[in-house]
Amino acid sequence: AVDETLANQIKIGQTVALAEPDPASPGGERLLAVLAVSEKFKYDKILEAEKVFRTTDAEHPGVARVYAQGDVYLAGDIWVFDRPLEVINSFTDIRFTPAETRRLFAERGWRRVVAFQTRNPIHRAHEYLQKVALEVVDGLMLHPLVGETKSDDVAADVRVASYQAILETYYPMDRVLLNVFPAAMRYGGPREAIFHAIARKNYGCSHFIVGRDHAGVGKYYGSYDAHYIFDEFDPRALDITPLFFEHAFFCRKCEAVVTAKTCPHGKDHWVFLSGTQVREMLARGEMLPTEFTRPEVSAVLMKGVQGRNGK
């Protein structure tokens, strides 16, 4: 999307450059791609917000982004020449393209691969979902998102470090691939869950984990709206199988991670921590309960949060 002033300077059939500032050349730019403009049109931001995010509330971070962007869309064929420097220079040892993951899966003999999307650090409930899913497939691709997120989300380097802290000790590394996902979060709930599934199909995965309030924010979506939306699509068109999971948590009575479907005990025995509670505990220098996350992860998070707060 561009503003009207710039849009008026661009003609249908024209080729425009997509670039970023070049730090090696003050005032210069790095060419990333070119766009052959075949369409140029205004759009209804309120309608787009309603269709994509199911809300027009400007407090929703995805809606706010739509409202803030330019009023004119440019469309056409794109030829990509290079990746942004931020992509080239970060997470270089665990950043694989869809072509690379497909090759890796084939080399490892993985025919059925499940992907796990997250914008959060690893904790016991996520570990439970991942390992339950791994029981029925050949391989697991852990795919933490490292693009733009809300300012109060845990930083990308910290959430990735939380996985790296425990993988070799607690996961079968011959059946797991850690790979960062370069997309940004739009907090679109159900529709973003569909996008996330299709993206993982492109990476070569056959299955995709969909948990509670996938890609949600605030109170905009129901806890399992991201499950129900898959009923609106032809499974053959999506060509990836969703694995639906309910909210998982540690039960002190069961002494295990469970869901309400598998645990007969009440909430008095269940360990819940909100994101706010986690951030407050870490900021005070308190380790998180071992029922919530492993000590190795807690140490990584504490270091990250306190570093962010200048302690």
Overall description:
This protein is of the alpha/beta class. It has two domains: 4-88, Roll (Sulfate adenylyltransferase); 92-308, Rossmann fold, CATH 3.40.50.620. It is 34% helix and 20% strand. The protein contains 13 helices and eleven strands. The chain has helices at residues 4-9, 45-53, 61-68, 85-89, 98-108, 124-134, 156-164, 167-170, 190-202, 225-228, 235-238, 275-283, 295-308, and strands spanning 15-21, 29-42, 72-80, 113-118, 139-144, 176-178, 207-210, 241-244, 248-251, 256-259, 270-271. The strands form three sheets. Strands 6-5-4-7-8 form a five-stranded parallel sheet, sandwiched between helices. A three-stranded antiparallel sheet has the order 1-2-3, with no helix packed on it. α6 (124-134) links the parallel β4 (113-118) and β5. The longest helix has 14 residues, at 295-308. It is globular, with a radius of gyration of 21 Å. The two termini are 40 Å apart. The relative contact order is 0.11. The model has no long low-confidence stretch (mean pLDDT 96).
